[in-house]
Amino acid sequence: ALMSACGTETKPEESTEPITSEQPSEAPEDSAEPENPEDSAEPEEPEDSSEPETSSPLADAITSARGDEENEAYPVQSDKDAIESMYYDVLGFTADDVTELAMSVSLINVKAYGIVIAKPADGCEETVKAGLQGFIDTQCANFETYLADQYEIAKNAKLETLDDGTIIMVMCENADAVYEAIVAALAA
């Protein structure tokens, strides 16, 4: 009895590990094979669901107005309810102040960069425009004595309201050309 008690204490631990490792590895392999195609299909769905977000006319206008390097470095966000609050804090308005929004903004304080296309909600035009002007003013103040080239970019930012009420802010190199490309893309 003593020998079997000692033997069962070591044997179940040793035998439990191989059995446990064999059974779970067999079960996930068996179940993983059929689930892998389903799992691989599931990531495709979120990719597909993200495509409509980036294919909004406002987001497309920003993407088409920039080069590949900027598109990779500064992604466009266009789901106004999913944008983190820190972006709204920096821009000076809230998600409730706009009906549609596409933005690409650098929060890193070494580059003056921001492109925003906003369709203000009724009665919020001044709030949105004042918030964007505040963003420009803050960037100018940040870079005035820090990085002269970035100060020039911030100082030359464009903030315009189109005839349909859409507000566009462009702060980047070649702001005039990017602004014109965005306006042309929105008109198309």
Describe this structure in words.
The chain is of the alpha+beta class and 188 residues long. Helices cover 61% and strands 13% of the residues. It contains seven helices and four strands, in the order ααααββααββα. Strands 1-2-4-3 form a four-stranded antiparallel beta sheet, sandwiched between helices. A hairpin with an 8-residue loop joins β1 and β2.
How many E-type strands? 4
Strand order of the largest sheet: 1-2-4-3
The description of the largest β-sheet is: 4 strands, antiparallel
- Show unreliable segments: 8-54
Shape: globular
Please compute the radius of gyration using only Cα atoms: 27 Å
Order of helices and strands: HHHHEEHHEEH
Give the class from helix and strand content and strand pairing.
alpha+beta
Estimate the mean pLDDT confidence: 81
Structure summarized in a few sentences:
The protein is an alpha+beta fold and 188 residues long. The protein has helices at residues 2-54, 57-65, 68-73, 85-91, 125-143, 148-155, 175-187; strands at residues 98-105, 114-120, 158-161, 167-171.
Write the layout of secondary structure elements.
Layout (H helix, E strand, L loop, with lengths): L1 H53 L2 H9 L2 H6 L11 H7 L6 E8 L8 E7 L4 H19 L4 H8 L2 E4 L5 E5 L3 H13 L1
Helix pairs in contact: 2-7, 5-6
Which short descriptors sum up this protein?
188 residues; alpha+beta; globular
